[in-house]
Write a structure and sequence with these properties.
Blueprint (H helix, E strand, L loop, with lengths): L2 H23 L21 H10 L5 E4 L3 H5 L3 E2 L4 E2 L3 E6 L7 H12 L3 E5 L5 H7 L2 E4 L7 E5 L9 E3 L6 E5 L6 E8 L2 E11 L2 E6 L7 H4 L4 H9 L6 E5 L14 H5 L1 H21 L17 H15 L2 H20 L8 H11 L3 H16 L5 H15 L2
């Protein structure tokens, strides 16, 4: 490697290190992605709610789990008594519908046995809509701001302004004979229902369309924690079964590099690995021998050529020539392998071939007889070809 290339390489490495240093000291951008994960401290994570749940439910046990409802409640059902061994309230906050069919059936079955379920999300499973007889609809508000309020007169008549992360889903059809309206959202398009209670068998569903109300962003505001507390006050006394996203598995991410890049030591180890790989490739580029091209050996086409000529004779019906070629090949093989003179095919020749090969003398005499017959005739038939071939092959077998 010449001196100029070394200088350019050193400058490149210094520039890369400078970029990494500037990136490390730059303030991290705010991530507005709504994850609603209990370990996330970003605006739309649930880190604050996770630490405040013990104050919101001081007398109730809170059980967090990261697997599905079906997996969690599977071993909590007594098949002999056809009932659950636990009682309480299901709690879930999610951006959109993330409940699989088996888990939804488990939630409905759990509520049917006298429990409650509080679901806050911007959309609900179609199967749940059919079971509880309600419909939702989306609308667009040009101001992108909503004012949320609760219908119960026991709460202060206050409207809480939500300007980020809000959804525009509302309940447009409900069973008014069974369902109870608990809250509203209001914008330029008017006042819409966003929080309802629906009795189901011996339990109740509490459905809410604004999961952002439970996020870090709004719980750290001055008055908004009151709205969150009032929402959760509808849950009856009992254990809270919280399906907490990423609980017990903090590294779950859609990006396989998220955890590595979130840890400074692992991040710099990764960067150094990439730099080392580039340097190795540059230094090693001229040290490898040029790949030697593979040369394919010439194919032996003698057998194929012979087969082609034989097929040509066969197609033309020249049986006499075919037999002649077979005789020539047969006698050449005897001269080469057994060193016998094949000029005179007499009794002496037959005896000597019999002694050297150990073949039946009658078979040898049969072949000699067919050869002499061929030489005394000018034409041959297909049967003559077959007879000659079988006789020669019988002698050629080891």
């Amino acid at each position: 490697m010449n001196r100029t290339l070394k200088i350019y390489l050193a400058l490149l490495i210094l520039i890369i290190i400078g970029i990494f240093a500037l990136d490390a000291n730059r303030p991290k951008p705010i991530v507005w992605t709504p994850t609603y994960a209990v370990k996330d401290k970003i605006p739309f994570g649930l880190y604050v709610l996770d630490h405040e749940m013990k104050h919101l439910f001081p007398d109730d046990k809170i059980e967090r789990f990261g697997n599905t409802f079906y997996e969690y409640f599977l071993d909590k059902y007594d098949y002999e008594d056809s009932t659950y061994t636990v009682k309480g309230n299901i709690f879930m906050v999610s951006e959109y519908d993330q409940i699989d069919k088996s888990s939804l059936d488990e939630v409905i079955w759990f509520v049917e046995h006298g429990n409650s379920a509080f679901l806050s999300m911007k959309d609900f499973p179609e199967a749940l809509k059919d079971s509880l007889n309600f419909e939702t609809e989306n609308f667009f508000d040009s101001e992108n701001e909503l004012k949320l309020s609760l219908a119960n007169k026991a709460f202060p008549k206050r409207k809480y302004a939500f300007d980020k992360g809000v959804g525009f889903t509302y309940f447009n059809e409900i069973d008014t004979l069974r369902s109870t309206v608990l809250g509203y959202q209001e914008g330029k398009s008017g006042k819409k229902v966003n929080f309802i209670k629906i009795p189901y068998k011996r339990g109740n569903f509490y459905l809410h369309t604004q999961p952002a109300a439970f996020s870090n962003y709004y719980l750290l505001k001055k008055e908004h924690p009151n709205y969150c507390a009032n929402l959760l006050s509808y849950l009856p006394k009992g254990t809270i079964f919280w399906q907490a996203k990423s609980f017990g598995n903090e590294t779950v991410s859609s990006s396989p590099m998220r955890y590595i890049l979130s840890q400074p030591a692992l991040k710099w180890a990764w960067y150094l690995f990439l730099i080392g790989t580039v340097v190795f490739m540059i230094f090693n580029a001229k040290r490898n021998q040029r790949i030697i091209p593979e040369k394919i050996p010439l194919a032996n086409t003698t057998v194929d050529f012979t087969k082609t000529i034989g097929n040509l004779y066969l197609q033309e019906g020249d049986h006499h020539t075919i037999i002649g070629k077979k005789i020539i090949y047969f006698l050449e093989k005897i001269r080469t392998e057994y060193l016998l003179d094949t000029f005179d095919l007499d009794e002496t020749f037959v005896n000597r071939l019999h002694q050297k090969t150990g073949k039946d003398k009658a078979d040898i005499e049969h072949v000699i007889r067919l050869i002499k017959k061929h030489r005394n005739h000018l034409e041959s038939t297909e049967n003559d070809v077959i007879e000659m071939s079988k006789a020669i092959e019988k002698l050629a077998k080891k």
